[in-house]
Amino acid sequence: MQYTPVLVVGGSLVGLSASLFLSWRGVPNIVIEKHEGSALHPRAMGFTERTMEYFAAVGLGERIPQVVPGTRLRRATVESLTGDWIRETEWTPGSGAPIPNDRVTPHTGAAVPQDTLEPILRARAIELGSQLAQGTELISFEQDADGVSVLVRNRGNGEVRAIRAAYLVAADGAASGIREGLGIAREGVGYLRTVDSVLFRCPGADRFLEHGIQQFEIEQAGVRAFLTSYGDGRWVLMRTDEQDLDERQLVPFIRACLGDDLGFEIITTGRWEMAGRIAAKYSDGRVFLAGDAAHQLPPTRGGFGANTGIDDAWNLAWKLAMVVDGASLPTLLETYDAERRPIGWLRHQQTFARPDYAKWLKGPMAPQTLLGDIAMELGQLHRSAAVIGAADDLPPAAHPSEWGGQPGVRAPYLEMTTPAGSLSTLDLVGRQFTLFAEGSRWIEAAARVSASSGVPLVAVHLGKDVHVNREEVRRKFGITSAGASLVRPDGIVGWRSGSGEPDAEAALGAALRDIAFLRHA
């Protein structure tokens, strides 16, 4: 029987991200994926600024092209692509006030087809030590107090083998057999519509992207559809008329949506459910749900589907690393559900409060204040026992410029300089615990706490190690010159002392012990 600390079931976008993040943190893992490669029909296309922060941290900053700074994603309602353009529609309808001018991240997001991104993730994961078994399917799994026993089958030669893992990450999609096997129910708006899509190649249509519109809602007599491009000559057309059209019948439909007789070639077709379903719990014993297995959401302009799953993987990876390493008690893993499930629900509610999806609801939903995409991606609040001091009156999400370094939110982005050059807070957080403070007593305390606990803790001496606008630091971190902010390995503020402590070492040691559920405190 082969042994691995973590087995990931599902080697698509979320499963590959989980494997990559685990390997980057030094956690050996195996990924099994029933298909030999990426799906022929790409799904996700837009990857957010936060997702790009993760990918940059693990060494993919130069491998994934990002959108040009200042590019604004745009959508229009048209009679056809080449016919009359009726009106431009808001990208996130009703999302509230304009975005403040504060620079909150150096990343711009990426517009990359999923079947282009997945090989990049796969290659990097293997570079870092991940074991990928493609063309391999799960037969059964059984967990006990000490681990999970799994049987898998090679779909090519039929060979069956056993794997024993300490933990299992289920990234096996919306129809997750693992979730069903555990008997975990789902809640939410449920099934709404069936969406049929056709992927086709039409390089001649790409010139219509020069106007700056990337997505087109087709409205003409007898035709309602959604058309968008993958930016590489491939286009996808989605419809909800529930007609069962074969390839011969699709040809005139595509032509009607294009308008002029542009040459095109059908590549493949697909069908998926427009639905909203959130798992009643994201974990069961040693098994953790991630991605669509945990939350089924339709594709939105904010990228809530794929990016939410990648966010799951980032949140879970550091916790598994701490537990597998023996530094933390397994109870740390209970904070995964506590933090991620409310965020899944927030995104569910935000998705179906937006006009483009609200129209499909079968009944009324409680009124929601629509939040902007940046607030959802970079300004979510995390609440759990691994966060100390998240006040009860804080909103579930807000634009980063509206936060002030409160525990539970992403560490603020700040640009800094050192004798070796420029960097930012993002370069200093994301792998280990990081302490930011101006006072030398905090820096000395951090060294002693790290040594006594055995947990890596990097202390950043503001004004000494790095040069930064101190007033900006104090405002964005919410601390005085005597205070300190402790950031978790996932870049979330875990604790802060606004104006200092009589015993810095005792306060910091207690905070680290509680946040990380340290086994030996």
TrEMBL record:
Residues 91-110 are annotated as: Disordered. GO terms for molecular function: FAD binding; oxidoreductase activity, acting on paired donors, with incorporation or reduction of molecular oxygen, NAD(P)H as one donor, and incorporation of one atom of oxygen. Its cofactor is FAD. Pfam families: FAD_binding_3, Rng_hyd_C. The keyword Flavoprotein applies. It comes from the Bacteria. Keywords: FAD, Flavoprotein. Residues 4-346 form the FAD-binding domain. This is 2-polyprenyl-6-methoxyphenol hydroxylase. It comes from Chitinasiproducens palmae.
